[in-house]
Amino acid sequence: MIAALRELEREKGIAFDTILQGLEEAMAAAYKSAWKTEHPDADDDFVGFRAEIDPETGEMRMFQQQLEEVEAEDGETLVMKVLSEEEVTVTDDFKGRIGAQTAKQVIFQKLRDAEREMTYEEFAGREGDIVTGIVQQSERRYTLLDLGKVEALVPQAEQVPSEPYRSGERLKAYITEVRRGAKGPQIVVSRTHPGLLKKLFELEVPEIADGVVEIKAVAREPGHRSKIAVWSNEPAVDPVGACVGPKGSRVRNVVTELRGEKIDVVPWSENPSEFVANALQPAKVREVRVDPDTQTAQVIVPDYQLSLAIGKEGQNARLAARLTGWRIDIKSETQATAVPEAPAGA
After folding, report:
1. In this structure, is the dihedral angle defined by the CA atoms of residues 84, 87, 91 and 95, taken in order, positive or negative?
2. How wide is the angle at C-alpha 24 spanned by C-alphas 21 and 29, nearest 5°?
3. Does CATH place domain 273-338 in 3.40.50.1220?
């Protein structure tokens, strides 16, 4: 048995001492269960057993303990204290039949625990990354993605209402949380998180992956429209052109993955006026007046560009405000130059 445990340690990476301790605890529990069957009238609350397995030979010794209930150091909790213990004789039948069965159960449990822990460790450092999974189950409240070793949960709040998730299709999602669970790691992913958009561009644009181009800001209304502001650390590289790609191929791949979500790629600028003007693309802006005290930007556009600047139901202006962090007030040239009528009787 010891040789088998050592081999298990080498192949599966489960510490020998961990398996041995688990075996000792399980054998002690199994022996107490057998003891209770033989002593049905005994007060077993104050009787315990401790198994000891020789790590070299695999020989087992069993000790019966007399227990006493005492107060813990906090003065409130009651704990069991060992008053005495003596070695008891373990039958060959118990060692053979029950021992083998118990060892098998413990080893399987330790294997499951180790695999769950390794899977957890694999994903725990990947929060903020994207994964590709296969849709296993999709209901109104949640969708499950098969990631191979584990399933990921897409809660309803992280789903795009306009996206149908069909069983068997491949889907990319953004990891928002990884936590330990009773049945293994629980991985929560999102299709609505702005980080998904950033990661998709990192996959498609080598200049972003290399750090030449940076995504400075993202504003997203999932399933409808998004804006990203990009900056180049090398003057010779056009950040917008790099993200759009030849004939729009790169941005088109991202749009396809997001099921047709429209994406505006605009240049980032440390100049607030310039950044606000860029953020309102595709509308053309005549002038931007910023007030740093109120974090407000008054934008003047040609009359024919007003509806485009505001966007359908205010979407373009709303996304530009989120992207820049400025409150944006848009006026047409006619509105900006109109002289207020004098009050009656003035």
Report:
1. positive
2. 130
3. no
